[in-house]
Amino acid sequence: MKRMVGILSVASMLCGGAAHGEVIHAGGTDRGVVRDHNEDTLLLMPESGVYIVADGMGGHAAGEVASAMAVESVRVAVETPFWGKFDSVLPLYRTMTVLSSFYQANRNVLSASLSNRAQRGMGTTMVGAVVRDGAVDVVNLGDSRAYLIRAGQIVQISHDHSLVQALIDSGELDTPEKVAAFPHKNIITQAIGTRPELAPDVFHVMSRPGDVYLLCSDGLVNELSDAEILGIVEAHTENLSEGVTALIDQTNARGARDNVTVVLVKVTG
Q: Which of 23, 239, 242 minimizes the C-alpha distance to 130?
């Protein structure tokens, strides 16, 4: 089956003996209209408060290998007896564990790439959200994105590691028209598995009841504007599974030149 859409679930997050409050989540991935296979991978770990989207690259199935390996590195890091044990004395323990898993993922993917000619050059972006007591921390590498939807507004939390973003930051692409005309939007400046050194970003957001956090691969934002994403999410805040489906369906209706993966996480209390 081409599409996988996660079942809506509710988890009561615990942190140092104090409840995070209820968090509702849903996630889905689709190969899109043009691609013949899906190189994206997602990870939903509501009991641990960890959500991940990875967008592989490399072709000939190597991209899906890279994204799956990276996500598995996170899962292994989180599924340890120590997860959540140090929250009262080390509030950022969970976030630092996920950050460390990005470095481990880089080592794993790079080693596999160098040892297998068929997978040479593979890599993956990855963005993750760590839901903890009163906060959401985002770890990002590449151009998969994290957004916050709050009080009728959508704000990008993550910062793309891409050539086009670097040129925007430098002022060389200083108008929306120049950005739209730029021909190399697919070039990223950092990815897991492409070189030994990497520098993930970490962002911290104080969460509020009603916040919706969106993680996505660039297949979504290549087809839909922020305003369109906001409208779809706000129409489905009471049923996030329907929201995920609506985002993917609208992306496919636009021609979906790439795989598309969406994760929605809502803080309800």
A: 23
Sign of CA dihedral 229, 232, 234, 239: negative
Regarding pTM above 0.85, the answer is yes
Laid out side by side, the sheet with 123-132 consists of 40-45, 50-57, 123-132, 135-141, 201-206
For residue 12, name the pLDDT band (cuts at 50, 70, 90): very low
Q: Where are the alpha helices (DSSP H) in the chain?
A: 62-78, 93-115, 163-170, 176-181, 218-221, 226-234, 240-253
Structural domain boundaries, residue 219: 4-267
Provide the CATH number for the domain around residue 50.
3.60.40.10
Contact, 167 vs 173, CB < 8 A? Answer: yes
Distance CA 44, CA 60 (A): 26
Would strands 18-30 and 4-5 be described as parallel, antiparallel, or unpaired? antiparallel
- How many independent structural domains does the chain possess? 1
Q: If we measure between CA atoms, which residue out of 120, 38, 105 comes closest to residue 70?
A: 105
What does residue 59 show for φ and ψ, rounded to 5 degrees? 75, 165
Which tens digit of pLDDT belongs to each residue from 167-179? 999 999 999 899 9
